[in-house]
Amino acid sequence: MHRKRLLLLCMLTLLSLTYATAQETLIALGDSCMELYDTHAALGYYQQAYKEDQTHETRQKLANCLYQRCDYRQCITLLADIPADSMTHDAMRQLFFSYSYLKENKQLLNSGLQLLQRFPMDAEVLARLCTVLCDQDKAGDAVTFARDYYHRDSTNLLINRTLANCLYLDRQFRPAAEQYQKLLAAGDTTFLALYSMGMAYDYMNDKQQAYEYLLRANNFSKPKKPGCLYRLGMISVELKHYEEGLDYLYNAYYMLQPDKTVMKLIHDYRAKAYYGMEKYEFAYGEWKKARECDGTSLSYLYNIAVCCVAMYEQAKTLNPDFDQRYDTAIPRPLQEAIDYFTMFLEMAEDNDQEQDDETRQMINEAHKYLELYKTNNSPDNQQVKP
After folding, report:
1. What backbone phi and psi angles, to 5 degrees, belong to 319?
2. Of the residues 19, 111, 334, 340, which has the fewest C-beta atoms closer than 10 A?
3. In 10 A of CB 314, how many CB atoms?
4. C-alpha 126, offset from chain centre
5. CB of 284 within 8 A of CB of 248?
6. Banded pLDDT at 22 (limits 50, 70, 90)
7. What is the structure's pLDDT at 181?
8. Beta strands in 124-203 (DSSP E)
9. Which pLDDT tens digit goes with each residue over 24-73?
10. What does DSSP assign to residue 304?
11. How far apart (Å, rounded) are the C-alpha atoms in residues 58 and 51?
């Protein structure tokens, strides 16, 4: 039935074009097939028309058909040599998105800029262009393009979302958060908006706001996103929601293995949570695992030593006769603390990099502890927090 309908349509078209040129007839037949979404038949007619005469029109007709058939390479071959002012808007878009599908970003940028010079309100092209600019570490340029469009039309959600993302990637966290707030107010609630807003507040050191939006992002996502889980876990620990933070961090751990960069952060924050809960043996174990992921960290060495002191003090509190269990003058937890403080100081002194205030403070505290061990064989009652 479909074939008969197509044949009848073609016959009617031929009758109406008796006096038309061969190329015009072939284009008209191709157009008729395209109206029926029969790109296979249309391709044959357009190819014949292109052989008759390689005009801008036949190039664009054939390129459109090839684009609809996802033959982006051939589409580019046909359109790339046509001057921009001789191309239709649709043809320019097809060239642009063909470059996008093939990830030829340099050509994409050039064709996108030419298109926007003629058609500056093409939001879809602008959004894609901004994304590519951000991928190439040109987020500042992307912000400029997106903001210019926003000033013409502040109601386009695609551009509003693009502007928010570009501001975030350009590390303009406060304007990004304000833009994400507008999106949420407009009902454009997405995981990326919630997550990025949470991270923006984290970078602004507003941990409570960061926690609230990351929590919403985590509840919004199905399945759970491991990156959001471990970030939420870290901020929960910083806010002293220790048990909640541990739950997020353990879930993220199994999803993100074996990335050592992330693993060391997860172990570090699990250790901080356990230390805050006064579960010093667990904290000790986590910081040792963190050090296995990063043997250059001074803070992990220092924190392991402090954990040893805390374990000793806790044991002494629970059992005043704890020291008598050991034949040596210094109980094993304190001897281990001495060893780690010594390793910490040796590494800190060998480190050629300039020391920050936190490192200098740790160095001073480590010297105080070691001096106390030399004189009293035990530290005073005040514990140093990691």
Report:
1. -145, 100
2. 19
3. 17
4. 20
5. no
6. confident
7. 95
8. none
9. 899 999 999 999 999 999 999 999 999 988 999 999 999 999 999 999 99
10. H
11. 9
- Please provide the average confidence, as pLDDT, over all residues in the chain: 89
What span, in angstroms and rounded, lies between the C-alpha atoms of 267 and 282?
Answer: 10
CA dist 199 → 38, 218, 370 (Å): 48, 13, 40
> What's the confidence (pLDDT) of residue 17?
46
CA distance 27 to 171: 51
Is a pLDDT exceeding 50 seen at residue 18? no
- Which DSSP category does 326 fall into? -
* Cα-Cα-Cα-Cα dihedral sign, residues 185, 191, 197, 201: positive
Q: What angle do CA 317, 318, 319 make, to 5 degrees?
A: 95
| pLDDT value at residue 135 | 95
Please tell me the distance from the alpha carbon of residue 301 to that of residue 296, in angstroms, as a whole number: 9
Contacts of 317 (CB under 8 A, 6+ apart): none
Work out the average pLDDT over 236-247: 97
Residue that wins the pLDDT comparison between 283 and 335: 283
Q: How far apart are CA 173 and CA 169, in angstroms?
A: 8
Kindly report, residue by residue over 158-198, the tens digit of the pLDDT.
Answer: 999 999 999 999 999 999 999 999 999 999 999 999 999 99
Burial class (CB in 10 A: 0-12, 13-18, 19+), 172: middle
Tokens describing residue 193: 């908006």
If we measure between CA atoms, which residue out of 52, 72, 73, 60 comes closest to residue 31? 60
The residue with tokens 């502890």 is 369
Looking at residue 158, its amino acid is L
Question: Which tokens is 384 given?
Answer: 């140093």
For the beta carbon of residue 125, count every other beta carbon within 10 angstroms.
Answer: 23
Neighbouring residues of 124: CB distance < 8 A, sequence distance ≥ 6 = 93, 158
